[in-house]
Specification:
heterodimer; A: alpha+beta; 2 domains; four-stranded mixed beta sheet; 50% helix; B: mainly alpha; 3 helices
């Protein structure tokens, strides 16, 4: 059964935590009074897993290992921190536009003003407003002088 | 040269004349001995008279020759002096001409060198001035660029302060549009990396 990665799980660190959590669950002898993490609940809901048992745990672990091996991960620097819903919306857009299994490591830097900087393993895409302003510095100065 | 030969010839002629006189005296002396052996008292008188006449003639001839010689010598001396003066003047004139020529050449060379040095100096001054002008323009441009950059940085800092109040929601459209604009390039890079 092909699993889907929910938008709330967006980076490899979360995947490793899930893997650790699932591994602990699999090793428990009497899984009672267990509180699942939000991410595990999200993962279960997103994939229609009604009951967490050894079989589903193994399937999820296999899915997470695949993601850790194959998912492309980028670093995205934003000017301001998105809320959970906004981040989920952003992840949905990014996975639709770039890759369904995309993982993102977010960094916040207000000096970008707006937009973002995307770093892949081999390149940097600076789409920030600060960069745009510096690129158009001459226009800015000209307009300031003419103002 | 001709004058010198004339002087030598004159001296030779005077010397010949003296030799002739001496030989004549010897001859007269010899003939007087012979007369003493064979002539009388009259003959002795005649001989004395002849001797006196001959001596007088010789003295006159010698005096005439000496006068002529003196005149010739004076004339020759004057000629030599004139020639010497002429030659000296010619030599001096030539030397002066050579000296003037040399001085003119040296003067011309000095002028040329001076002009060359002046020309080089002018060129160097021109180059230096051009270099200074270029450097001034560069500095001016650099200062203007720095000023523009500072203005831009001030403006960006101001915008950063203003944008600090902007939340994610307010800049979401800008973020999405910038990602949309670059999605193909990012996707290509991600795919290649995987």
């Amino acid at each position: 059964m092909p699993y889907r990665l929910p938008e709330s799980i967006y980076n490899s660190s979360q995947l490793r935590q899930l893997k650790s959590e699932l591994s602990r669950l699999r090793n428990l002898r009497s899984p009672k009074n267990i509180v699942f993490s939000n991410n595990l609940q999200e993962l279960a809901v997103a994939n229609g897993v009604g009951k967490i048992n050894v079989a589903t745990i193994n399937d999820l672990l296999k899915f997470i290992d695949t993601l850790l091996d194959e998912s492309p991960e980028i670093t995205m620097t934003l000017a301001s921190a998105p809320g959970n819903d906004e981040r989920a919306e952003l992840m949905m857009r990014l996975r639709r536009q770039l890759d369904p299994k995309l993982l993102v490591h977010f960094i916040i830097r207000p000096e970008l003003l707006a937009g973002c900087v995307v770093r892949t393993k081999t390149a940097v895409f600076d789409m920030s407003l600060a960069k745009a302003l510096r690129q158009n510095q001459q226009k800015l100065v000209t307009r300031l002088k003419n103002a | 040269m001709t004058d010198t030969i004339l002087v030598i010839l004159t001296i030779i002629s005077v010397a010949t004349f003296f030799i002739f006189c001496l030989l004549a005296g010897q001859y007269i002396k010899g003939s007087r001995g012979k007369r003493n052996q064979s002539s009388s008292q009259d003959l002795t008188n005649i001989g004395r008279q002849a001797k006196a006449d001959a001596q007088e003639k010789i003295e006159k001839a010698v005096a005439r020759e000496i006068t002529t010689l003196q005149k010739t010598l004076q004339s020759q001396s004057e000629t030599i002096g004139a020639n010497f003066a002429k030659n000296l003047q010619s030599i001096t004139t030539q030397q002066l001409r050579e000296f003037k020529k040399t001085m003119d050449l040296a003067d011309t060379n000095m002028k040329k060198q001076a002009e060359m040095v002046a020309s080089q100096g002018q060129q160097q001054a021109k180059d230096l001035q051009q270099s200074l002008t270029d450097e001034q323009l560069k500095i001016k441009q650099k200062v203007l660029n720095n000023t523009d950059q500072q203005i831009a940085e001030i403006m960006i800092s101001y915008l950063a302060e203003v944008a600090g109040d902007l939340d994610y929601q307010q800049q979401k459209d800008y973020l999405y549009s910038s990602i949309e604009a670059n999605k193909d390039a990012i996707k290509k890079d991600i795919t290649n990396a995987v």
